[in-house]
Write a structure and sequence with these properties.
The structure is a single chain. By secondary structure, the chain is of the alpha/beta class. The protein has one domain: Rossmann fold (3-Layer(aba) Sandwich). It contains 9 helices and 7 strands; from the N terminus they run E-H-E-H-E-H-E-H-E-H-E-H-H-H-E-H. It has a 7-stranded parallel sheet, sandwiched between helices. Helix 1 packs across helix 8, helix 3 packs parallel to helix 4 and helix 4 packs parallel to helix 5.
């Protein structure tokens, strides 16, 4: 049976790649994005052209993850057209560049809103339907930055991705008895082929930022350049999309809890594996190992 799939933050970058990679066979992919009538109109046109060329079911849908009414409307439209949502890919996110102190509290709140609270809005819209059906899959696009060798100047983003990961881990156990499965995809620092760095937010407190510049000068550019040099020249961000498609295509109950795509090998996988092993052992000690897997 075909799957009905919703991908958030799908106007560009990983999201656009994931939406296209998932569009195969009879599956129906909704690429959630803001401003479909103006700023992202070209992304809507490009996706429609891709769908027509490859004869797949992929379409854009207006979805602003920062607005609960927009999220609700998008999910209700999909439910109205197909009666269900089988898979949600939590991809929407926003990066920052600059010293943490120079970001205002409101800016940090915005970063958390996009990277963390957005997933809660989508879950509150879609999980009631999945729970009633006793089936569904949540795919979270995380980041090696939540656990790996994290350089400075990206603090708000790193903190938000760590919060997203913690939320994903808790929700995985809480929805398992409803037959809902969860997987976390952990990309590394792909510095080309996406818009993460080009669209990164910068601190509003320019005075404080300049004081940091006086001591660190070119350190930020140097660190980011050296970080980029850790990745092989052929590192392909499209592999993230291919791995998501492969994950979704696996039978229920056979999907891994985490999938790693980290060409730079920044150490996150090693730390995550230890944390996940401790989590499994903890649940077994408490006698609730069944919460580690979706109910059949």
């Amino acid at each position: 049976m075909s799957r009905i799939i919703l991908v958030t933050g799908a106007s560009s970058g990983f999201g656009a790649m994931i939406a296209r990679s998932l569009a195969s066979g009879d599956d129906v992919v909704y690429a959630g994005m803001r401003h479909t009538a103006d700023r992202n109109a070209q992304a809507v046109t490009d996706l429609a052209a891709y769908a027509q060329e490859h004869r797949v079911h992929a379409r854009a849908i207006e979805l602003d993850v920062s607005d609960q009414s927009s999220v609700d409307a998008a999910v209700e439209r999909i439910i109205g057209e197909h009666g269900r949502v089988d898979v949600v890919v939590h991809n929407a996110g926003h990066m920052t560049l600059g010293p943490v102190e120079a970001f205002t509290v409101a800016q940090l709140a915005d970063v958390y809103d996009t990277n963390v609270l957005s997933t809660q809005r989508v879950n509150r819209a879609v999980l009631p339907h999945m729970r009633r059906r006793r089936d569904g899959l949540l795919v979270w696009i995380g980041s090696s930055s939540a656990r790996g060798g994290t350089p400075p100047w990206l603090g708000p983003y790193f903190a938000a991705k760590a919060a997203e990961d913690a939320l994903a881990v808790s929700i995985a156990a809480e929805v398992s008895r409803f037959g809902i499965e969860s997987s976390i995809v952990v990309p590394g620092s792909f510095t080309t082929g996406t818009n993460h760095y080009a669209h990164a937010g910068h601190p509003e407190d320019e005075t404080t930022a300049k004081e940091y510049d006086e001591l660190y000068a070119s350190t930020m550019d140097d660190l980011l350049a050296k970080q980029a040099s850790l990745s092989p020249e052929d590192a392909d961000p499209g592999e993230v999309a291919r791995q998501v498609a492969a994950l979704v295509g696996l039978p229920k109950g056979q999907r891994p809890f985490r999938v790693y795509i980290d060409p730079a090998q920044d150490g996150a996988e090693e730390v995550f594996r230890i944390g996940d092993r401790i989590r499994r052992d903890f649940y077994r000690t408490l006698g609730y190992e069944e919460l580690l897997h979706p109910a059949p």
